[in-house]
Amino acid sequence: MALDHAILVSLLEKPGSGYELARRFERSIGYFWTATHQQIYRVLKRMEAEGWVDVRDVPQYGRPDKKEYSVAPAGREALSAWLAAPIEPESVRHDLAVKIRGAAFDDPASLIGEVERHRQAHRDRLAHYLVGETRDFGQPPEPEAAGPLDAERELQHVVLRGGIAYERMMIDWLDDVLATLARFEPGTDPDTGPAG
Amino acid sequence: MALDHAILVSLLEKPGSGYELARRFERSIGYFWTATHQQIYRVLKRMEAEGWVDVRDVPQYGRPDKKEYSVAPAGREALSAWLAAPIEPESVRHDLAVKIRGAAFDDPASLIGEVERHRQAHRDRLAHYLVGETRDFGQPPEPEAAGPLDAERELQHVVLRGGIAYERMMIDWLDDVLATLARFEPGTDPDTGPAG
DNA sequence: GGTCACATGTAAATAGTTACATGATTTC
DNA sequence: GAAATCATGTAACTATTTACATGTGACC
């Protein structure tokens, strides 16, 4: 299970509350691992019981108090063990690909709107990533300290580059899908159409 | 839920037993939707109860008998309804990206072997896809019937092209990851290393 | 007789989603 | 006073994974 570890990584990057983690899972770390706040609260409670994280009550002015979580030594060790253990290349779940193959038994052209919507979502995400890349990695790290490499920064950047490459690939592929779907006129599918 | 629909699509492409479906989910449709045989048997039973699929006992010589499932009209309608309903762009789960960001708090260079292993898996999958593409789509469909487009074939092909594009993107990105990790010498991480 | 591929399942545990629930404070 | 954001949870359901279980027939 990687949600535990995704949370540990996020807390190592910056301690925070369950609410704040839920925010981060809508962007940043959420670009490659999704989770809802319900899941996050449950895992935080479990990790606290296991001694993987420490909690600290933080009174706040002008808003409700929060519980700030940070990674305990046992959590760091658990992360280390997970990093050292091999994992299987990810198992994919692409609803859209199922739909595209399924469209052969329905009206292929009727899927065009849906695919266009997905392409737009990927375009938006790409634009968002590129803004983030310029903002966070556009300039060299520290003008004075040109010495040791900042692992956290460099590795965040390479993961972001992966996200950018993924979105570009998807946009190109969805263009290909649209061109393919467009070759099937509405109503000419083999099951119900007059030209089948 | 798309496992139901992935099974329906697979059965429309070709009726078969739970065992055969489990085989297909190890290749073909399994490239974009994974499922184990336990899941498949459970879903088939449910879909049979709902009247989405029909079953037929097929006695076999030289091997155990099997139950052959095929899509019933109600299943076709359910698939049609699902195709018409918009779905959210997929939620991603990339363990490896979590590991890469997590490596900043451990020894980045120790992840190199794992990343190389993943790159090899993606290379293998790409090679496998390319063989399949040449085999199944290398020649034009039917030398005589140059008329109506074969939706099933064309849409299977565009999905396969997506798989190929994905694997190529991953291989390139993992090269980038390896180059990035290589810049961090073993033992120089900020937490335990002497150079931090 | 052992192993492999075919064939179908049950049980238990874990993970993930959806719906519901509460309450503070800020801004309009 | 209504809506939005911050903040934390419970309950119920659905999906997925892992482990266990059984039996056939082919091939060595």
Write the layout of secondary structure elements.
Two copies of one chain form a homodimer.
Chain A: H1 3-13, H2 18-24, H3 37-49, E1 53-58, E2 66-71, H4 73-84, H5 95-102, H6 112-137, H7 151-182
Antiparallel strand pairs in A: 1-2
The structure holds a DNA duplex (28 and 28 nucleotides).
- The ordered string of helix (H) and strand (E) elements of chain A is HHHEEHHHH
Span of the ends, CA to CA of chain A? 48 Å
Global structural class of chain A? mainly alpha
**Rg for CA atoms of chain A:** 22 Å
How is this structure best described in words?
The structure is a homodimer of 196-residue chains. By secondary structure, chain A is mostly helical. The model of chain A is unreliable at 192-196 (pLDDT under 50). In chain A, helix 6 (112-137) runs antiparallel to helix 7 (151-182). Chain A has two domains: 3-84, Orthogonal Bundle (Arc Repressor Mutant, subunit A); 95-182. Chain A has seven helices and two strands. The first copy, chain A, has a two-stranded antiparallel ribbon. Chains A and B meet through helix 1, helix 4, helix 5, helix 6 and helix 7 of A and helix 1, helix 4, helix 5, helix 6 and helix 7 of B. Chain B binds a DNA duplex (28 and 28 nucleotides) through helix 2 and helix 3.
What's a quick, concise take on this entry?
The structure is a homodimer of 196-residue chains. The first copy, chain A, folds into two domains: 3-84, Arc Repressor Mutant, subunit A, CATH 1.10.10; 95-182.
